[in-house]
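Cross-posting from the modeling subforum.

Setting up a comparison between two proteins and wanted a second pair of eyes on the formatting. Protein 1 (sequence, then structure tokens):
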Amino acid sequence: MLLTSITNRLRDYKTSLQEDSQILEKLENKDDLQYPDGVSYRRYEMAVLVRKGEKEILHDIMQLCQDFVADQTRQTAGDSAKRERI
């Protein structure tokens, strides 16, 4: 359920984590990057940084959940094997 919520939240973003990294790289290099009218360069950069940080946190939580599930699966399989030997 948590993984589904995280996946859905990540889908709500219009850009991916990789795209945000590319946008920040272009901003840093002062490349010809179009940002929304009426928004300053600095404000746009901060918004992308925040958005990227949110996605990194969601990806980290997703990885922790997947690791936890894998550990629990291995542990359950190990417990079952022990019971069969007894």
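Protein 2 (same layout):
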Amino acid sequence: MSRTLRSAFHAFARTPAARASICIAQVALNVVTLAFLVVVGTCAILIPVMLYVFWLKPSGWQWYDAALFGSMIASTDAVAIVAVLKKSE
């Protein structure tokens, strides 16, 4: 890397925008991972609970109906995780 390019990079790296982008990149990995795992996990737990505990199977509900409802409920959990992680900064 040339000296001019290196000095320009270091000048940019000290700006608030660069520090914010680094912070966002670090938090984004945690948010995406936790949000994905929470949605999949909650959906997987809600399918048998809805079908067999709440007796929706005899009403005609299939696993994909419960999965759709579970994914809608689980996505609100992901929003809550993002809010908690944002608050902790």
